[in-house]
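quick one before i forget lol
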Amino acid sequence: MGKVWVLFVMFLAAGCTMTVNGTPVDNSPGGGSTTNPSGNSGVVTNVVDGDTIDVNINGTVYRVRYIGMNTPESDEVCYQEATAANAALVEGKTVTLVKDTSETDRFDRLLRYVYVGDVFVNARLVQDGYAEVVSYPPDTAQFEYFKSLEIAATSAGLGCHPTGIFNDGRFDR
């Protein structure tokens, strides 16, 4: 039954198309692709952890927090794995940063959806089980899509899920 559920969720997600700031997003489960997202481009200069990076945009370095998901903190199980997964996707690469609604969070980090080429990084980290989905209104354009990816990752026991770190949408502490 578990494999059937995963396939069903993946089938549903494959047919969904969303828009972020007027940009169509192809929510394919195979990698979270997008069609030419509009946003700022820059080069990742530092991977802080699984959901935060530093990006050089036109000579200024900005701290960027990924929208719609959360990864383990440095004192939590699976921190190293989530950080490594993020680094493998973005370290030293040119990224496109797409805004949802808010510009920054309370720590003055840019809040963005992050893309490397056609790879939707936020979605990939959820899909691979290294991030849990979190709704931070008003930045919720991808929430339902991310939730479908999280259900599939949980069912498949991917990433941090086998460690038991994710429990009902929260980290075990």
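fyi Residues 2-165 form a domain with the OB fold (Dihydrolipoamide Acetyltransferase, E2P) fold (CATH 2.40.50.90).
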